[in-house]
Amino acid sequence: xxxxxxxxxxxxxxxxxxxxxxxxxxxxxxxxxxxxxxxxxxxxxxxxxxxxxxxxxxxxxxxxxxxxxxxxxxxxxxxxxxxxxxxxxxxxxxxxxxxxxxxxxxxxxxxxxxxxxxxxxxxxxxxxxxxxxxxxxxxxxxxxxxxxxxxxxxxxxxxxxxxxxxxxxxxxxxxxxxxxxxxxxxxxxxxxxxxxxxxxxxxxxxxxxxxxxxxxxxxxxxxxxxxxxxxxxxxxxxxxxxxxxxxxxxxxxxxxxxxxxxxxxxxxxxxxxxxxxxxxxxxxxxxxxxxxxxxxxxxxxxxxxxxxxxxxxxxxxxxxxxxxxxxxxxxxxxxxxxxxxxxxxxxxxxxxxxxxxxxxxxxxxxxxxxxxxxxxxxxxxxxxxxxxxxxxxxxxxxxxxxxxxxxxxxxxxxxxxxxxxxxxxxxxxxxxxxxxxxxxxxxxxxxxxxxxxxxxxxxxxxxxxxxxxxxxxxxxxxxxxxxxxxxxxxxxxxxxxxxxxxxxxxxxxxxxxxxxxxxxxxxxxxxxxxxxxxxxxxxxxxxxxxxxxxxxxxxxxxxxxxxxxxxxxxxxxxxxxxxxxxxxx
Length: 585
Fold this sequence. Notes:
CATH topology of the largest domain: Rossmann fold
Number of domains: 2
Distance between the termini: 77 Å
Low-confidence stretches: 365-370
Helix content: 40-55%
Strand content: 5-15%
Pathway: Polyol metabolism; glycerol fermentation; glycerone phosphate from glycerol (oxidative route): step 2/2
Number of helices: 18
Shape: elongated
Function: Catalyzes both the phosphorylation of dihydroxyacetone and of glyceraldehyde, and the splitting of ribonucleoside diphosphate-X compounds among which FAD is the best substrate. Represses IFIH1-mediated cellular antiviral response.
Mean pLDDT: 90
Subunit structure: Homodimer. Interacts with IFIH1 (via the CARD domains), the interaction is inhibited by viral infection.
Strand order of the largest sheet: 1-2-4-3-5-6
Order of helices and strands: HEEHEEHEHEHHEEEHEHEEHHHHHHHHHH
CATH class of the largest domain: Alpha Beta
Radius of gyration: 34 Å
Family: Belongs to the dihydroxyacetone kinase (DAK) family.
Number of strands: 12
Oligomer: single chain
Catalytic activity: D-glyceraldehyde + ATP = D-glyceraldehyde 3-phosphate + ADP + H(+); FAD = riboflavin cyclic-4',5'-phosphate + AMP + H(+); dihydroxyacetone + ATP = dihydroxyacetone phosphate + ADP + H(+)
């Protein structure tokens, strides 16, 4: 395949439409293909005809999936006709579809057609032939494009994604048993109160061909059609908010002959349509911007539909459709349907302008209130404050040392990460609850989780959170030893590492074993802590000769790991700083 031809997951360009239709039918038990035609109909089409309700057909060129077959189902279309990619379907297929859904049904059939010359001609020709056979058929042409208008009276406004709204409205009315004339009247009125405008960030390519047009990397096109037809302006890329404002400004500009009036107090439905290659993340941002734009003008956005409704192959871009609502149209949008591509879960729910609910507050002791854990005397609280300050000071002092160690096994930012967390703790020092160790550790956990970032922030937050629990009921040396053990277990459980894997767990585990043994003998707490410091420093140094079995260092060759692990070194520095602060006091 030539280099300038867009890559596609197809078997052949000649059979791609047929195979796509076969896949759609195979994936949805309620859909069936008419043999010998590119026509999809409801599996229960015979019972639909027998019910004497109006049947609905739509269609057009392929490449707009899920349109049009995705909208077949009770409460929407009875069938759909697919042409070749971006090509109107031939009259023979359209006529076969009319016969399939209309023969023996006195209620009649409505053809919903997008306003393109080929579609109007081919569907119109088929309508006339069906009428000559005695079938009751009518046609509604949808052209809601607000981008540009043609001076050629045979062209006019293009039919875009808003056509899907008409499928839903007409389908709901047909399901109610309304007459063909009533359906045409209501759906036509809705179509006249609707506008769509699109933008593209990149072109699409028809199978077997190159890009349909060219856009520079820093450009977007405003007002293009769903086949890649030219829009009315190209602009330099800017923010999503500014692009959405440009789209809706043009849609509602009275100087634009195809503009849509959306006065203050209007009730509307909004469709944010993916043209094929736009990420869900971007769709959310565009939807937010469009809602905010409309609501800032006093418009009530009561229904929002976001997703892929009428695409243009892989084109990166979006279209926005605004539809005026009244009680009838709203009820039609909310009515049940089995059509697989319609987002039925959104029906019947008025959206609100408030997207937030209050977040639950962290439960902690208020100043002067009852603490959540065991409290300590003032002198012990002062020691804890000195410990926290000394540890943070040392982390800041050792930033470059730890970064240097990390360059050999990671991305060289271990020291910067530790220093960032330390600086945030120091900034909050005067407000930390040193009189309650349990609450103190939880507060420190929240700070490092939020401000340290990365895996280090998560690991230290886990450690501190788990370590806080044993300090709820006691703050004696044994409780602090138990807290150390609980923190180690949490890191191992969720981080996946074990002692011996060349991580921060090595000095932590060595310190805990030594501290536990020393406290069980006749050592004082300070003596036990001193022995634990030596064990931690020895263990951290020993990581220089350990194979890395966890963390980022595990991706580095063993011959490059000749220095101590930076995370283990940081732990040893912190434990040494703890000892020095306690001893100095």
